[in-house]
């Protein structure tokens, strides 16, 4: 019998005669696509022994929209708005990665002013993503107020996005070759005000959570992932850094003038949920540092490089990856010389990070599964594309 | 017949003790209405207070500042379709919310709102309260079982395990408070004649605090405080509120024992939960916070004689000042109503709401004025202080829910068994040792 | 363990710190909610809302020259421009302009492509309708522009 589900996962111990499901040792529980904690439509099938998790299997694809196929039928400039819809929480970094990839294919480079604006928006975007992560993660663990505080602070970032490019969520902020929009009047002032506004707020999040004994007990030792496992599984982003591996693409392979800025890479020690929380809070502070440096020194100049109206990149392929808030976001574009890409493949960080769920959750309790899914910071739009 | 009605008015015992069934019935109805009123206010108050702590506004549309929201919620729940799972155990499914509400309200028979303001005063009052509130666990298990589905069953079993394990810690804290009633000495460390009999009756416990001139939370400081703290933590776990609300949390896998209940049945569960919150808060208030006594119950100050305004010259100026507290609280509430009504946006759509809020403020102010009148003022003191302390406890419940994450189930049980139980034993031991310290010292002197 | 962490643990300093934070935010002037529809939010000028066709303010004629660049630029191909050649002025004149808002993703590529100042995405965001028919905007609806909803209740 060749059954495709014979991964060994579904072979549960069936109860014997005169036994009910309560007598069987293993229980297969479905944490279905509709669930308040699975950050989107993710289906997790848990194999439980009482409260302990013996194994998991993730079923994804509920949000698949065929973005990569769509790319084959759109020109490079036309495809730009579609990219925001993948990681809809942090749309600016998706756009940045795509523009950098096509620019590499076309062999142009964005002018310095555009690069600085890109850096400022990308770091604001990182802060927005981490704040949303913090709010929802705290909500999963039971603390319901940090959600509202982080969303209030995130609102200020979205207002800046709205004033700059016209949309809060699906920003379409950058164009191939630079940026379309010049900074609006008062941009620097508002960003500086935002930096002043949000710095004490991060201290408040820490006051509410970091030393709180309930929070520490819920997150310390939960979802352990060693550095070696991270590298084996291909996990990147704050998850990797919290396991002790000091790897950040902004320092290792700098793009868009990141080498001009002075910031640190926070790392953790144990690779548990608490360390990932600390790493992301520290990244919030480092992003503020970068924004502070960038916004006070934006060079004057053009904001768009010389890019032909109808883009026909030379035949070839390129892979460009950036440090998105969730990890390494990569774009692999194969061009056959025409105006539309032959193949566009996105390496979503959430998709690869989600593979680590099984390793992190084996042996924990059910309540930890929710915490671990939260700490991986997945967005199903990215996982499914 | 008329004698039957009026004879009670001259007695100084509770109607139950006086054997007057008519007045007992009246008191039962008043308490039922009162607790339901507290639940309704809590519904509104929880949403508004929680919202303000979360930098948002809460319900604003239904009445002025959402004051009619509980009515809207009640209408919605009552008109909802009554869904029963097809394989559910029908009698038990029906019985579970009824049981929970019955138990939650039965506890109020012995809760004293004043020296004679209780339905009855059993001489085992506190034991009755603890025993009856333990029966509530049965309702939870029935709900989980009758729903015929994994999640409610697991949630119900977890919830019942949690409630049972925290009752032990509650019991130990209660015993230490009962032990404190058997002393006659005055003040926080006064012991007096330790062989005087203690009492389990709720009214007796408060009267012991009045006699000893100290609230038990300050007695043998910090022993009383630790006992109160143990009870405070245990009572939050007992009522399944944050941070111990894993069994009914939505973001966990198991959605809780009341998953399959909708409409009126679910509202009965919520009613039972809030009533249980009020019940355990009233135990805590009676045992440690002096029940109906005002703060500093024994400080009376020099006697003053202001005819018509104060007809108790034997009681003194401090009592006179504190006697205005109920009216002051209501005036403050009325002031808030007027202030917010003036602040409402001047939009034609909001005219009715603004007028309603002004009217509500007038009503509150009117009640405050009534409470200023001397005959009312004398009688309202006890009830006011008790309800005020319950309000403080309810606010703390909401505050805790807004602030802290929730414990995982094994950590919850660890706190109950490994932290509170030893602490409770320690507190009991310390109460006994301090209380019997004269005898112990005498024995030691005799031995040495 | 040393004395300070022990005292912190016993007196629950960490929990009380959290309580202080939430207590502080009860101040009514910390409330961040906007009471829509009484208070409308402030929309940025560059906001990409509903589309509209601008007309010449003096003559009332449309500014569209039927160059079809917007239709070419749209990733979803939802703009259809029909034109006819005016024999008198020897220019193309736009006769009908159809814009399917139900499929539009408000990316703004059409606005970038427009060679005159005609097509623009306004600041209107209130276009909920009861049926899908009203979501294909014709020229008349586009020239009418934003119609903010007035709430009566």
- Rg of chain C, rounded, reads 26 Å
Strand content of chain B is under 5%
Q: What is the residue-averaged pLDDT of chain B?
A: 86
Instruction: Point out poorly predicted stretches of chain C.
Output: none
User: Ranges of chain B with pLDDT <50 over ≥5 residues?
Assistant: none
**Straight-line distance between termini of chain B:** 69 Å
Overall 3D shape of chain C: elongated
Structure description:
The complex is a heterotrimer of chains A (385), B (448) and C (153). Chain A has 385 residues and is α+β, with helices and mostly antiparallel strands. Chain A is built from 15 helices and eight strands. Chain A has helices spanning 67-71, 76-83, 91-106, 112-141, 145-165, 187-209, 213-219, 227-233, 238-242, 249-252, 273-295, 349-354, 357-361, 366-376, 380-384; strands at 27-31, 43-49, 52-59, 174-175, 178-179, 316-324, 327-335, 343-347. In chain A, the strands form three sheets. In chain A, strands 1-2-3 form a three-stranded antiparallel beta sheet. In chain A, strands 6-7-8 form a three-stranded antiparallel beta sheet. Chain A has a two-stranded antiparallel sheet with strand order 4-5. In chain A, α5 (145-165) packs antiparallel against α6 (187-209). The longest helix of chain A has 30 residues, at 112-141. Residues 1-8 of chain A have low confidence and may be disordered. Helix content of chain B is 65%, strand content 0%. The model of chain B has no long low-confidence stretch (mean pLDDT 86). Chain B contains 17 helices and no strands. Chain C has 153 residues and is α+β, with helices and mostly antiparallel strands. Chain C has helices spanning 3-10, 13-24, 69-73, 109-113, 139-144; strands at residues 51-53, 79-86, 91-100, 119-121, 136-137. In chain C, β2 (79-86) and β3 form a beta hairpin. The longest helix of chain C is centred in the first third of the chain and has 12 residues, at 13-24. The mean pLDDT of chain C is 85. At the A-B interface, β1, α4, α5, α7 and α14 of A face α15 and α16 of B.
What are the SSEs and their pairings?
The complex is a heterotrimer of chains A (385), B (448) and C (153).
Chain A: E1 27-31, E2 43-49, E3 52-59, H1 67-71, H2 76-83, H3 91-106, H4 112-141, H5 145-165, E4 174-175, E5 178-179, H6 187-209, H7 213-219, H8 227-233, H9 238-242, H10 249-252, H11 273-295, E6 316-324, E7 327-335, E8 343-347, H12 349-354, H13 357-361, H14 366-376, H15 380-384
Antiparallel strand pairs in A: 1-2, 2-3, 4-5, 6-7, 7-8
Helix pairs in contact in A: 2-3, 3-4, 4-5, 4-11, 4-14, 5-6, 6-11
Chain B: H1 2-9, H2 15-18, H3 21-53, H4 69-78, H5 90-106, H6 125-134, H7 136-146, H8 150-180, H9 202-211, H10 223-238, H11 264-288, H12 317-322, H13 325-343, H14 351-372, H15 374-403, H16 409-435, H17 437-447
Chain C: H1 3-10, H2 13-24, E1 51-53, H3 69-73, E2 79-86, E3 91-100, H4 109-113, E4 119-121, E5 136-137, H5 139-144
Antiparallel strand pairs in C: 1-4, 2-3, 3-5
């Amino acid at each position: 019998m060749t059954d495709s589900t014979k991964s060994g996962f579904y072979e549960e111990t069936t109860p014997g005669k005169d036994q009910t499901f309560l007598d069987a040792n293993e229980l297969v529980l479905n944490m279905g696509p509709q669930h308040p904690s699975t950050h989107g439509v993710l289906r997790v099938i848990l194999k439980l022994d009482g409260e302990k998790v013996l194994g998991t299997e993730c079923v994804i694809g509920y949000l698949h929209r065929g973005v990569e196929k769509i790319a084959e039928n759109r020109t490079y400039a036309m495809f730009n708005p579609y990219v925001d819809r993948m990681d809809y929480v942090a749309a600016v970094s998706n756009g940045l990665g795509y523009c950098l990839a096509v620019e590499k294919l076309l062999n142009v480079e964005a002018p310095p002013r555009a690069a600085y604006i890109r850096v400022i928006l990308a770091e604001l975007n990182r802060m927005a993503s981490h704040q949303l992560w913090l709010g929802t993660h705290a909500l999963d663990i039971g603390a319901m107020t940090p959600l509202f505080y982080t969303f209030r602070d995130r609102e200020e970032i979205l207002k800046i996005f709205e004033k700059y490019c016209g949309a809060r969520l699906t920003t379409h902020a950058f164009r191939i070759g630079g940026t379309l929009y010049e900074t609006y009047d008062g941009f620097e002032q508002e960003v500086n005000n935002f930096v002043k506004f949000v710095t004490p707020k991060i201290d408040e999040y820490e006051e509410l959570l970091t030393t709180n004994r309930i929070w520490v007990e819920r997150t310390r030792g939960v979802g352990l992932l060693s550095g070696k496992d991270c590298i084996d599984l291909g996990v990147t982003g704050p998850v990797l850094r919290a396991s002790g591996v000091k790897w950040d693409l902004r320092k290792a392979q700098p793009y868009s003038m990141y080498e001009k800025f002075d910031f640190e890479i926070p790392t953790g020690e144990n690779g548990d949920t608490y360390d990932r929380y600390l790493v992301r809070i520290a990244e919030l502070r480092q992003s503020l540092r970068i924004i502070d440096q960038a916004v006070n020194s934006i060079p004057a100049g053009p904001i768009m490089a010389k890019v032909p109206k109808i883009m026909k990149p030379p035949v070839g392929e390129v892979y460009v990856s950036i440090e998105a808030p969730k990890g390494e976001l990569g774009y692999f574009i194969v061009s056959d010389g025409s105006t539309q890409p032959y193949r566009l493949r996105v390496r979503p960080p959430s998709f690869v990070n989600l593979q680590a769920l099984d390793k992190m959750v084996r042996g924990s309790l059910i309540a930890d599964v929710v915490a671990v899914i939260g700490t991986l910071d997945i967005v199903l739009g990215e996982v499914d594309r | 017949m008329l004698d039957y009605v009026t004879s009670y008015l001259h007695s100084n015992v509770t109607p139950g003790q006086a054997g007057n069934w008519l007045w007992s019935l009246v008191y039962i109805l008043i308490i039922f209405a009162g607790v339901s009123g507290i639940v309704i206010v809590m519904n509104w108050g929880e949403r508004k207070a929680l919202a303000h702590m979360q930098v948002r506004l809460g319900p604003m549309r239904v009445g002025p500042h959402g004051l009619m929201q509980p009515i809207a919620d009640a209408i919605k729940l009552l008109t909802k379709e009554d869904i029963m799972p097809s394989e559910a155990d029908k009698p038990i499914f029906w019985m579970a919310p009824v049981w929970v509400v019955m138990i939650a309200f039965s506890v109020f028979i012995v809760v004293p709102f004043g020296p004679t303001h209780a339905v009855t005063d059993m001489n085992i009052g506190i034991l009755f309260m603890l025993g009856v509130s333990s029966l509530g666990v049965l309702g939870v298990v029935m709900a989980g079982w009758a729903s015929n589905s994994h999640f409610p069953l697991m949630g119900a079993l977890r919830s019942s395990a949690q409630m049972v394990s925290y009752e032990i810690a509650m019991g130990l804290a209660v015993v230490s408070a009962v032990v404190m009633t058997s002393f006659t000495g005055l003040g926080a460390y006064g012991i007096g004649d330790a062989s005087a009999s203690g009492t389990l009756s709720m009214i007796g416990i408060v009267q012991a605090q009045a006699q000893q001139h100290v609230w038990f939370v300050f007695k043998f400081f910090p022993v009383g405080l630790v006992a109160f703290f143990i009870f405070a933590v245990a009572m939050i776990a007992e009522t399944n509120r944050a941070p111990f609300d894993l069994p009914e949390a939505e973001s966990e896998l198991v959605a809780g024992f009341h998953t399959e209940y909708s409409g009126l049945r679910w509202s009965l569960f919520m009613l039972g939960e809030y009533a249980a919150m009020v019940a355990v808060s009233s135990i805590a208030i009676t045992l440690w916070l002096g029940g109906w006594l005002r703060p500093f119950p024994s400080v009376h100050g020099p006697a003053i004689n202001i005819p018509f305004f104060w007809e108790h010259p034997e009681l003194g100026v401090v009592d006179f000042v504190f006697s205005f507290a109920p009216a002051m609280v209501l005036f403050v509430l009325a002031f808030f109503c007027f202030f917010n009504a003036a602040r409402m946006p001047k939009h034609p759509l909001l005219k009715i709401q603004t007028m309603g809020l002004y009217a509500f403020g007038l009503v509150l102010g009117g009640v405050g004025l009534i409470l200023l009148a001397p005959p009312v003022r004398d009688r309202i003191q006890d009830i006011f202080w008790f309800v005020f302390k319950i309000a403080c406890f309810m606010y703390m419940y909401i505050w805790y829910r807004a602030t802290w994450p929730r414990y995982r189930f094994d950590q919850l049980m660890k706190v109950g068994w490994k932290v509170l139980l030893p602490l409770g034993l320690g507190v009991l031991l310390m109460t006994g040792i301090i209380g019997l310290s004269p005898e112990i010292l005498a024995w030691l002197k005799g031995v040495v | 363990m040393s004395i300070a962490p022990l005292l912190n643990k016993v007196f629950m300093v960490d929990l009380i710190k959290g309580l202080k934070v939430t207590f502080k935010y009860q101040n009514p002037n910390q409330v961040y909610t906007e009471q829509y529809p009484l208070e409308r939010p402030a929309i940025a000028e560059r906001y990409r809302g509903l589309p509209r066709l601008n007309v010449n303010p003096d003559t009332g004629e449309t500014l569209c020259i039927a160059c079809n660049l917007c239709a070419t630029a749209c990733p979803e191909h939802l703009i259809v421009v029909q034109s006819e050649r005016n024999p008198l002025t020897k220019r193309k004149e736009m006769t009908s302009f159809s814009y399917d808002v139900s499929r539009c993703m408000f990316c703004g590529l059409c606005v970038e492509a427009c060679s005159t100042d005609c097509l623009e995405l306004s600041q209107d965001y209130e276009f909920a309708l009861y049926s899908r028919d009203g979501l294909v905007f014709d020229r008349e609806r586009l020239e009418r522009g934003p119609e903010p909803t007035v709430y009566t209740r």
